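Before going further, learn to read the protein records used in this course. The integers have meaning only within a learned vocabulary of local backbone shapes. The record below shows the convention in full.
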Amino acid sequence: MSVILDAQDVFSLGPVAAVAAIRDVLAGGLDPDADVPRVVLDLAGGQGLLMPSETGGWFGVKVATVAPGNPARGLRRIDATYLLYDSETLTCAAILDGVALTALRTPAVAVAACLDRLRAAADCSPDGLRLVVFGAGPQGEGHVRTIRAHVPVAGVTVVTRRGGAVPVWADRHLTADDAAVAGRVRGADVIVAATSAREPVVDGTLVRDSAVVLAVGSHEPTVRELDGALMGRATVVVESREVALREAGDVVLAVREGRLDPASLKTIADRIGPRATVLADRPLVVKTSGMAWEDLAVAVAVYRQGGRRA
């Protein structure tokens, strides 16, 4: 009988355990490039996505939909369900809330990729790290929560196109055209780009050499949040070189402009292990697009902590 794990069950795993799940599966030898590419289907009301993966005795698949017209109906734009199977018996062990799973694993992947750098920066900042977050949605909040779970944070500035009330997880909310944004970016230890923008939202010339930049909003080859100026001077870390060069507009467009050498791309797997180094002579950009193995790693961790039986 399958276990039903709702959003509360998924989030109860917590960001620390989610980051550990990502790091552990990579340390165990998982090769992201061996993952099955996701399937994107054009549907009458939007898109459907199928994201299957198998590793460590488990098979899982996320079925997600993107319906651009849903917000006008009072419905969420993205919906998803995750099915987790035992690889040997091929029986369904659990059914998970796929939206919650995505919200938990996306920041977990980004933080797993730069955890050493964050800790090194925190050691040099007794008051905590200064964060600037472009985008006030669930992913902006999730990245702040995950960073806070691992290192002290001195303050969080949120930047959006229209401004508005300060989210409970931030200290200040600025509009994108506010002159104060440049100063906040210059002083930021960590910058998070989690928007639906199709053009860069971060001025790469303002980013300090010691900063960490996490970009998660774009997963299309013609869309980006980071400009070529930043990508060209940064160490760029991706989940998979093949996926990044196919799907990540921040990477694809910088390569096309001649700003970024594709051979210079590092992977998250490269940065996990005893030989990983902490380099602070240039910005560290972590660009993620989302891969099926990440959902599987976190789904297994959620399942192992328990849930309700259907």
User: Anything to note?
Assistant: The radius of gyration is 19 Å.
